[in-house]
Structures are given as C-alpha cells and as structure tokens.
Amino acid sequence: MFGCGNPRADLMLVGEAPGFHEDRQGEPFVGRSGQLLDRMLKGIGLRRDEVYITNSVKCRPPNNRDPKPDEIKACRSYLDEQVRLVDPKVVLTLGNFASKTLLDTTTGITRLRGRTYPWQGRTLVPTFHPAAALRAMERPDSPQMAGLEEDFQTVARLMAELDRPAPPPAPAAQVTVPDPDPDPDYEPEQMGLF
Ligand code: URA
Q: Model pTM?
C-alpha cells in the first residue's frame, strides 16, 4: 500500500504501516485512526485529498505487530522517493516509528514532539499516532489527544506562513546626514585680532 492524496501537496503525513483495512482497501488510514485524522485535518481547514498520506512501511506487518528495523529499512528508499517527488513543505510524522525513522533518532515521540525540526529543506512536525490518542482517550488525564490537536495547530500555522506573500524587501536604510550648520543665522563672534 503506497500512499494517496494530492501528489503536489504542501503537507505530507507519514504513518507507521498499513493495518488490516488499509491493506484490503489499498489506502492509508481508513479505519478509526483515519477518521480521527480526517477530523484533525478538517479542524485546520484541510481535506484528505488536499494532502498526501503514506506510511513508513508499505506492507502490513503480520498480525499488526510493530514493524521490524529491517522492514523499515527496506521501505526507506520508497519513502524518500515519495518525499522527493511530492516535495511537501511540511511533513507531519504520526507516532514513534515514523518520527524516529525520519529524524534518525532513538528518542521517543513524547520527547520529540512539541517543536518543529528542519528536515531535508522542509519542516518536520512530529506528533502522536492517532491510534495512541484514541487509546489514551480512555484515560482522562492522558496528554495524547491534546498534543495531537496542538501539533495540528502548529501545522496550520506553518501552512499559513506558506500562503502569505513574501514581505517586500526592506527599504534601504535612511541615512540622515546631520546639518553641518544647524543654525544658518548663527554668526560666530569675530575674534579680535589684536
Ligand atoms: N496506522 C498507520 O500507521 N497507518 C495506517 O495506514 C493505518 C493505521
């Protein structure tokens, strides 16, 4: 399962790996996580067909187990090529796997999120996986859903900055030449020669 959406999107979402329904339908995020994702996108004025959505791993790991490092590695060149072709300005990584893979780190998502990262000439925003936010909803004090919403607001801000026309070049600094004779009527007192 490769990816879907606008092949010229400014925003690319990268998940973990297809699940059962995604595998069947050939489209990423079509289950409950996908519904939450659609809701989050709607909240910032975007539809799924306006962005590009894909996964770090292109095949469904058996029994929905976590992807293995060699599976992530095997799919990496496909992901890199997708990024190169779509050329998004903002990349939103959903969850631990995508965030760690693209940022090439072992640091977990809880510590990674909450800020943006320059990445391959773009801006990367790491956030919680929507499935984790859904699971966490059962625990009232869980931070995942609020974190997901906050990170989507960050994406909205970055997208708005892209839409804004570049500011005109700053005018050349005004150089004020001080008046050599501030009082034209001033007549210095003649010094008596003798
Ligand atoms: N979870 C993912 O990470 N990707 C999908 O496509 C579906 C669920």
A: 0.84
